[in-house]
Amino acid sequence: MRFNIDGFVRSARTAYNATTDIGYTQVFRNGIIETVDTSLLGIIAQNVAPFNKEVEPKSFNGETYERKILETMKRFVGLQKLLGIEPPFFVMVSFIGVKGYKIWHPTFKYDSSQYTDEIDRANLIIPEIMIENFDVNNLAEVMKPIFDTVWNATGKEGSLNYDKEGNFKFGY
C-alpha cells in the first residue's frame, strides 16, 4: 500500500514474487473507493492447464465471484466508517471484456449443461445500488439486484446463490 496523488492505493498480485498485478484498490481523498480484480474472470480458467480439466476458459465461478464481492463490500463499508465518510454509498459493478463468457456454478454438475449461456456484449455496466447506512443487516440482500443482473446477462432468471425466499445461501 502506498500514498499517491489521489489518496492511497494497493496493488494485488497472484504471488509475492509475481511481476504482474491482478488488481488494485484506490481510496480517493473524497472517500470514493475504486477496485479492480482481474482474477474473478480467471477463477476457473487458471485451472485449465495445471489440472488438464475440461474447463471452459471463458467462464467464471458464479458462487465464488459473489462471495468475493460480498467480502470486499463488507470491508469497504467498514473502511468508510473508519474514515468518517457518511452514508449513503453507491455501489457500482462492471464487467469489462466479457463477451462470450459463461458462468459455472456447483449446482450445474447435476445438470446436462455445466455452464450458462454466453454473455452477449463486451461490457456489463450494472445499475448501481445504494447503501443507506452503516447498519446494513443483510449486505447480500442489498447486493442481490446486482448479482441477479449479471445472471440475467447469461439467460438466467437470477442468481443461483439465493433461495426461493431471496436469502443468500452462504450467510453475510
Task: Give a quick set of tags describing it.
single chain; 172 residues; alpha+beta; four-stranded antiparallel β-sheet; two-stranded parallel ribbon; 3 helices
Description:
The protein has 172 residues and is of the alpha+beta class. The chain has a domain at 38-152. 23% of the residues lie in helices and 24% in strands. It is built from 3 helices and 10 strands. It has helices at 48-51, 62-83, 139-152, and strands at 2-4, 7-13, 21-28, 33-37, 59-61, 89-91, 94-96, 102-104, 123-125, 129-131. The strands form 4 sheets. The chain has a 4-stranded antiparallel sheet, with no helix packed on it. Strands 5-8 form a two-stranded parallel ribbon. A hairpin with a 7-residue loop joins strand 2 (7-13) and strand 3. The radius of gyration is 17 Å and the shape is globular. The chain starts with a strand and ends in a 20-residue tail after the last helix. The mean pLDDT is 87.
Question: Mind sketching the topology for me?
Answer:
Blueprint: E1 2-4, E2 7-13, E3 21-28, E4 33-37, H1 48-51, E5 59-61, H2 62-83, E6 89-91, E7 94-96, E8 102-104, E9 123-125, E10 129-131, H3 139-152
Parallel strand pairs: 5-8
Antiparallel strand pairs: 1-2, 2-3, 3-4, 6-10, 7-9
Helix pairs in contact: 2-3
